[in-house]
Design a protein that fits this description.
With 174 residues, this protein is mainly α. The protein contains nine helices and two strands. It folds into two domains: 6-54, no CATH class; 58-173, no CATH class.
Length: 174
């Protein structure tokens, strides 16, 4: 669960002020959250699992999913911006796939899969294509028509589509 990301996270810090930053730093000092170099905070270890079990965060995850779908679609060919928030995008795609929100999986997947291929993030790209394939199968989407998934790289895309939907095939991209 990511608490702040990229430019959006910096905007939150500007609006809320230093109090939130101080609180997050205090939580980091206690080992409850961790931060990367860009001060993006994430929950650590068992606390995240415990919170997911005790809180219904569906409404908030849905809001984040809508935000990131619209944001990613607006980025166009800006590979660097999309990749800077890859962690949260992958978490949202995983949640959407687990929740059976297939239309959302396809929208967000289509918005980011080109950036993943161009950024040579092969493992993440294969994972996104796998979720998109599951979504397309569930919706009867034309993504499954021959040649429709080949605009970025025909050979890897065809290979992904030919694989059973298991985590084992991701090892080929790492």
């Amino acid at each position: 669960m990511q608490l702040a990301h990229g430019a959006y996270g910096r905007g939150i810090r500007r609006r809320i002020g230093h109090d939130a930053h101080d609180i997050l730093e205090s939580l980091r000092d206690r080992g409850v959250v961790q931060a990367d170099a860009m001060l993006r905070y994430t929950l650590t270890g068992a606390l995240e699992t415990e919170l997911k079990m005790s809180l219904d965060v569906t409404r908030w995850v849905e809001r984040a999913l809508r935000y990131f779908i619209e944001w990613a679609e607006q980025q166009g060919p800006d590979t660097e911006r999309l990749l800077s928030d890859l962690h949260v995008i992958l978490q949202l795609l995983e949640w959407a796939a687990e929740a059976g929100r297939w239309a959302d999986v396809l929208r967000l997947g289509r918005a980011v899969e080109g950036a993943l291929a161009l950024g040579r993030r092969w493992g993440a790209w294969a994972q996104v294509l796998g979720w998109m394939l599951r979504a397309a199968r569930a919706l009867g989407d034309p993504l499954l028509k021959p040649g429709s998934c080949t605009r970025v790289a025909p050979v890897p895309c065809a290979w992904v589509m030919s694989q059973p939907l298991t985590a084992n095939w991701l090892r080929h991209f790492d």
